[in-house]
Amino acid sequence: MAHCLVTGGAGFIGSHLTEKLLAQGHEVTVLDDLSTGARDNLRSIENHPRLHLRVGSITDPVLLADVVRGIEVIYHLAAAVGVKLVADDPVRTIETNIYPTEVLLRLAVQGGQKFFLASTSEVYGKNPKPQWTEEEDLQFGATSRPRWAYGCSKAIDEFLALAYYRKFGLKVVIGRFFNVVGPRQVGHYGMVIPRFVDQALAGGPIVVYDDGEQIRCFAHVGEVADTVMRLMDTPAAIGRVHNIGSDKPVSIRDLAAEIARRVDSRVQINFIPYGQAYGDDFEDIRRRVPDLTRLQQTLGSKPSKPLGDILDEIIAHKRAQLASGG
């Protein structure tokens, strides 16, 4: 069993990954500043004897040097999170995403740790193809559009990680997350499913941005965490990028209608322009669908939980929170 570091381990994906690592018998140190993560996400494991929580920022290089001592595997998930946060504060996005990754990579070379880098489908930018493979060109918008700061900063992270793999032989695995959803995800930062479910449970309306014809795919966080762990145990994944997510597309309009049907069919669906939500300089991506061929070839499987089952689980979780006053 290994001693693992999970940066951002009190966040949505990080907390699920931490639970699974502990369940496999690993020792886990979580580093999180609790700005977008929460102690409550770790409630079920907070007293676990092999869990160590360090509260602090990944932008602190002294803290990073201290926390990696004795670590064998690094899962680097900490980053600026969500479309709204990125649009509101691109400076924080760039500072949080680039420099700490470089510091951690350098420390991993010195300490010989294996390294998982959580990247994002945002690196594809405005690529117009109906499905994106890992070798697609990156096509970003103008620098005057703040939303591209996130995709650009994570692309820099990927370039850095692959450069450390080529130059120093660092055992790096990169996963590009598409829309990951499930219990404990919050809607504060633009995540669409928890936002829609919260609105529906409150009696509506469900607020859809633009015309709702944007296309997305949604994968369950448990399957994504399992995929990350399996990739780290697969030698063929080292030095490569893998799309991680579902490849079953749904329009945002249909997603809103499905959530309304499952919560309360009387809930209304309203449409507002992007500018009203994010400002007039916001640009969106109309279609975001991964090609999972490489993942299927590497692991022999891919996330496959049906969207309906995922929605039912999220709705049940949210209702339980409301019933308990959470």
Task: Characterise this structure.
- This protein has 326 residues and is α/β, with parallel strands linked by helices.
- The chain has one domain: 3-Layer(aba) Sandwich (Rossmann fold), CATH 3.40.50.
- The protein is built from twelve helices and twelve strands.
- The strands form three sheets. The chain has a seven-stranded parallel beta sheet, with helices on both faces.
- α1 crosses α8, α5 runs parallel beside α6 and α7 packs across α12.
- The longest helix is centred in the middle third of the chain and has 21 residues.
- The relative contact order is 0.13.
Average pLDDT: 93
CATH fold title:
Rossmann fold
Which class best fits the helix and strand makeup? alpha/beta
Which segments are poorly predicted (pLDDT under 50) over 5 or more consecutive residues? none
Topology pattern, helix = H, strand = E: EHEEHEHHHEHEEHEEHEEHEHHH
Gyration radius, in Å: 19 Å
Q: How much beta, percentage-wise?
A: 15-25%
Q: How many distinct helices?
A: 12
Give the helix level as a range of percent. 25-40%
> Number of domains in the coordinates?
1
**Order of strands across the widest beta sheet?**
3-2-1-4-5-6-10
Task: Report how far apart the termini are.
Answer: 35 Å
Main sheet overview: 7 strands, parallel
The level-1 CATH class:
Alpha Beta
Q: Find the CATH superfamily.
A: NAD(P)-binding Rossmann-like Domain
